[in-house]
Amino acid sequence: MLYRKLLRDFWNHKGAYLASMILVMVGILVYNMMSMLHDSFDYSLNLYYDEYHMANGTLKVTSMPLSKVDQIIKLQGVKSAEGRLEKRVRLLDEEREVTFNFISYDAKNPDRLNNFQLIEGRMPDPTRPEIIMGNYYFNAVGLTIGDVIPVIINGEKHNLEIVGYGRSPEFIYAKKNNNELISDPETFDIAFMPYRSMSEMFLLENQINNVAFSLYDPENFENTKLEMKDLVYKYGIKELTELEEQVSHSATTQKLDGIGSMTTSVPIMFLLISGTIIYIVLKRIIEQERTQIGVLKACGFSDLRLLMHYIIYAVIVGAVGGGLGAYIGISSVPYLIEMMAVGFNMPFETAGLTQKYVIYSFLLSMFFAIFSGYMGARRCLKLEPADAMRPPVSKESQEGLMDKFYWAFEGSDMKFRLALRNMLRNKGRSLFILFGIAITAALLTFPVSMSDMYGKMLFDQFSKIEVYDMKISLNTYMDRETVMKLIENRDGITRAEPMMVLPVKIKNAWRSKDSSIISIRTDGKLYNLFDMDDNPVTLSRDGLTLSHWVAKELDIEVGDEIVLESPLFRGDGVRRINVAQIVPQYIGTNGYMNIELVSSLLEGKDYINSIMVTGTDLALKQLNDDLNESKFIDTFDYREQIAAVFNEYMAQTTAMVGILIVVGMLIGFSVIYVALTISLSERNRELATMLVVGLTEGEVHQVLLIEQFFLAVFGIIMGVPMGKAMLVSFAETSSSDFLIMPAIIPSNALLFSVVTTVIAILIPQIIGRKKIGEIIVTEALNARE
Amino acid sequence: MNGAAELRKPILKAYNVNKIYDNGQVRTHAVKDVSFTVYEGEFIVILGPSGSGKSTLMNLIGGMDAITSGELYYRDQAIHGFKKKELAKFRRNVIGFVFQFYNLLPSLNCIENIRLTADLTKDPLPVNEIIKKVGLEGRERHFPSQLSGGQQQRVALARAIVKAPEILLCDEPTGALDTETSYQVLDLLQQINREYNKTLIIISHDTELVKYADRFFEIRDGKLHEKVS
Description:
The complex is a heterodimer of chains A (785) and B (229).
Chain A: H1 2-12, H2 14-51, E1 57-65, H3 68-74, E2 78-84, E3 86-91, E4 99-105, E5 117-121, E6 130-134, H4 135-140, E7 148-153, E8 156-167, E9 188-194, H5 195-201, E10 207-215, H6 221-232, E11 237-242, H7 247-288, H8 290-298, H9 303-331, H10 333-340, H11 353-377, H12 379-382, H13 385-388, H14 401-404, H15 406-409, H16 414-425, H17 427-443, H18 446-465, E12 470-479, H19 480-488, E13 493-508, E14 511-520, E15 529-530, E16 536-537, E17 544-547, H20 548-553, E18 561-565, E19 574-583, E20 591-594, H21 595-601, E21 607-615, H22 617-627, E22 633-638, H23 639-682, H24 684-692, H25 697-734, H26 747-773, H27 777-782
Parallel strand pairs in A: 4-9, 6-8, 14-20, 17-19
Antiparallel strand pairs in A: 1-10, 1-11, 2-10, 3-4, 3-7, 5-8, 6-9, 7-8, 12-21, 12-22, 13-14, 13-18, 13-21, 15-16, 17-20, 18-19
Helix pairs in contact in A: 1-9, 2-7, 2-9, 2-11, 2-23, 7-11, 7-23, 9-11, 16-25, 17-23, 17-25, 17-26, 18-23, 18-26, 23-26, 25-26
Chain B: H1 3-7, E1 10-22, E2 27-39, E3 43-47, H2 54-61, E4 69-74, E5 77-78, H3 84-93, E6 95-98, H4 110-118, H5 127-133, H6 149-162, E7 167-171, H7 179-195, E8 199-204, E9 215-220, E10 223-227
Parallel strand pairs in B: 3-8, 3-9, 6-7, 7-8
Antiparallel strand pairs in B: 1-2, 1-4, 4-5, 9-10
Helix pairs in contact in B: 4-6, 5-6, 6-7
């Protein structure tokens, strides 16, 4: 018979249970989605690294004999090493500027380090001009196996046959330039070629410029690094990095950590709110049914039986919400992977994770449901039959906080007093509403902040900072004067400025970071710097200007003397320099320096490796065409194209913004709806009395509105710092060396948060107003207190 | 009929009033062809056992429920034609209610419960005078649950009269009180009726109340009959 009662009670409180169920569902859904995405990412990454022998470190030099690899293998701690060639190659294509990063492999060694995954096709014949094309480019431009592509190598055209396509764990995250967040798959990818054919084609037989190596103990990297440096210093070390610092690996793990940080916090927030709703609803049911409980106990029902009866409500909510959440969450993982893993080129495995997360979801939702159910229902254990059949001691019987300051409210409107007193007397419910609204307001500060953040980053970077039309990157360091003369005097070129990107390790005491220094002219116009207040900054003539992110990471302040280590520095490779300025930088993390100063650090060598150009479209096209086959050109980058790709990547945040709005409003609506229905039900008699003494339905509703308005105001005020804290935490976990999120809440984001929170609060009021109209005054008033 | 009453103006008139509750399965004819006239300042008692329809009749008179057929007038205004807002206005300005179970707002103290209704009207009676009148001096800041049943009913009474209604409707006002307190409340009601010239309609099953009434009616199975005391 109790089951019939259960069903009827469920129906009577359907709104509150449904809201709670939806919140459990969303909590479990997010938990499943984020956890499975994280675990799948982590598991797939490790599997991918193991299967394709990801190296523990990479050495990049200008050029050195292949035979040196044998000496590297003999170094203490080195387990294996593989010499490779890595070269930038441009496609001969009139329509678009396409660059490939060619990497050689040892065709004779099937267990080679940093092996690639052949997705389809066959391995190239080392005696023929055949390549394995990167899968991103292959699919993006619709190539087929057997297609031949013309490329420029050493200033000459070569036709290469694509015999397959694939990818490598070494280039899960690969991009053409540092100022790109993600490369357009139609204009950049990796390609793999046997060492023999590649070295012949590049006229670099028995030469290498890249060594992948693995260590017996990766923890001992620093010792090996010192020995390796001694061994190869004369070949121009460009980079000697361990796996942790490797561009692709660090970007991938940063992304993984960002996902990981959301796996527990977001679901727990939902489950807590849902649990609180279950707790409040059950507590109220127990209060309302105390006489019934007394009668049932008097009839012989045990405490446990009754407790179980009430906990079943919570179990049903948890089971249905959790089940739906698990189902939707798990089934949407593949779509989520597609959305979140944009730019991460690796196979994703979800095998084996589904069962685990079905069990976890069940346990998690049951834990929250049973715990909140027990907390809400435990009062029925304490009720003695005789006590239960007596009316409860009213909590309105004591004077509240407001009564201590009675004078302050003496002249106020009675509706206001009524609302205020109810608010202060039902502290639990008021706190629930307060935190519900605060979380809603906090979440709803995100969408506009995020859009603004990305918008600002995009706008600043490509309309204020980098204002050239085209940037020509060289594949070597060249004399500034020679290069600039060649370009700046051409017809239609309005401005040309040199840039030298200097690879460095920035060191401050025991902290260090691999980075680069962009050196430009102090009076340059094509690459501009701005301070935190968006005022233009003139580059210091004799000091280093540092990105705020690097400065924060290395604990550097203006005036500090830091150490720069670069393979291009003669002697000990080390220079000391003062930090003159710190500027905000959101895309990329590097330092800036006056090009003359860099020249002096290089002992007078006036090197550059990039040229920024503005001019007419015709002049730029002509320049591109004329230099297209030059063996010194690495890439031609058009600012508008980089901005477009960046913009496209940012489009995925639109989905995130939409989800946040729905989630935020859902919480706000659920909390207010539940609080309102509980309030209406508990205060049925009180509201009926108000109606009968002559208050209109609107006036009665005003009492409830005033109460919620107060809580909303405080909730929103609380929500702003909560939103800021959440945004800071989100920005910190989402920022990487390539994209630094500024955690700024602009005023329009606050406005949006306030408006949407108010909407989320107002929607349930429509239901509330209707329910006041449905109060049967005569029934409510004739009921015994 | 009381001769004095005939000189007064009628304040309430009912012609063949019926109230039928129909939930689709059960049809209850709670009030059957009820007709009556009540004059200004009268003290009326309507007696009837449980389920006789007396509370339904009070709800109809008080504008808390709509009649099924017939006509019901307050002076020359047709209550049966009132819309929701007009009914609220009618309750606010014309009627003062006193219930068996007091129906005070638990989160307002004694004086606030009285002021709540005082605030609703343009010319309420002085709150302190009313408090004095009902004998609640010194208990102004007490909350309903800190008061005895009789005291709560006095608050209810004060709340009803403070807005100076023309008609005071009391549904079993002594139903939850002991005998002594009941007499105190009834004395108070009679005092209010006389001093403030309020029309008083009391619905009860207690025949003892008849001695306070100018006229009394009996209601049985929904039918109203005027009785001679």
